[in-house]
Specification:
The structure is a single chain. The protein contains six helices and nine strands. By secondary structure, the protein is of the alpha/beta class. The protein has one domain: Spore Coat Polysaccharide Biosynthesis Protein SpsA, Chain A, CATH 3.90.550.10. The strands form two sheets. The protein has a seven-stranded mixed sheet, sandwiched between helices. The longest helix has 13 residues. The protein is globular and about 40 Å long. It comes from Sphingomonas chungangi. It holds the Pfam family NTP_transf_3. One of its GO terms (molecular function) is nucleotidyltransferase activity.
Amino acid sequence: MKIAAVLLAAGRSERFADGDKLAAPLGGLSLGLHAARTLAALPLSGHIVVTGPRGMAWPDVTVVPNDRRDAGMARSIALGVAAARRTDIDAVLIALADMPFVSVEHLERLIACYRGPDTLVASSDGVIRMPPALFGAAWFDTLETLSGDRGARAMLEQAEIVLADPAELHDVDRVADLEAARGRFQG
């Protein structure tokens, strides 16, 4: 089984009032690099990050620029999946760069649910289904034709779920979220 990770890092950070949130320091790294480092710990067939026009460095990954961030998250998903497909893979693991607490163990549980091309597995905090999510090859065409800023949310309603501690699925959208995340690294 060949799986590529697609890390979405092209958001506009509109709710973050203090510059580029992914470049903000958190526990000795930039916020966005926490998710990248976690994905890099997995023995996958490829590691792709879809970025906006930032100058942030993304080591040891294939960088795919999103020159139309205004087209929403769906554009980033489409670009990432298209890049992953060029490497002849069976599935993509889509994650968000503003989720620094997702563990390798949780991602491994998602991957363990792979059952073939129709596989669709999402994370859940016990209430909603969300990324990180694993999509088998049968979903690639649909992922590449999504539109808008809701990404693959409607698709995830059909997904098998893998529960995670809600704190693990915490994302950083606002400055207050970053401050809370910093508290977790210090505590």
